[in-house]
Amino acid sequence: MKISGLVDKVYDEQSFLVFLHALMKDRVEEVQKEKVNPSPPYGPGANGWENGTIEGFLESAIAWAEDSKNSLNKIESNPWKRCAQILYMGKHYE
């Protein structure tokens, strides 16, 4: 199952941990792929990671959390799912 699908299935601590394991595996796989066949420097990596450092990942996760909180969109009420959404968006958001 894709990570985006796992985000939608997060509802408690156990499902959050399943999501975290998948996110970590996805990053490890991307690092391995990038060693063999590097992606261009100004785009996503092999698995779609836009933020390849912990600093960039966290900065993007925080930015998305703040931006989505201030948007007109409905905020997720389940805190486990909201945390999963924030971390997932750290992968993509710039």
Describe this structure in words.
The chain is mainly alpha-helical.
User: What's the pLDDT, averaged over the residues?
Assistant: 92
Spans of at least 5 consecutive residues with low confidence: none
**What structural category arises from helix and sheet content?**
mainly alpha
Shape: globular
Helix content: 55-70%
State the major sheet. Answer: none
Radius of gyration from CA coordinates = 14 Å
First-last Cα distance: 24 Å
How do the helices and strands follow one another from N- to C-terminus?
Answer: HHHH
Into which percentage range does the β-strand content fall? under 5%
Secondary structure tally, helices = 4
Would you count the extended β strands for me? 0
Give the domain tally: 1
Features:
94 residues
Secondary-structure topology with pairs:
Elements: H1 3-8, H2 13-36, H3 54-69, H4 79-92
Brief digest:
The chain has 94 residues and is mainly α. The chain is 64% helix and 0% strand.
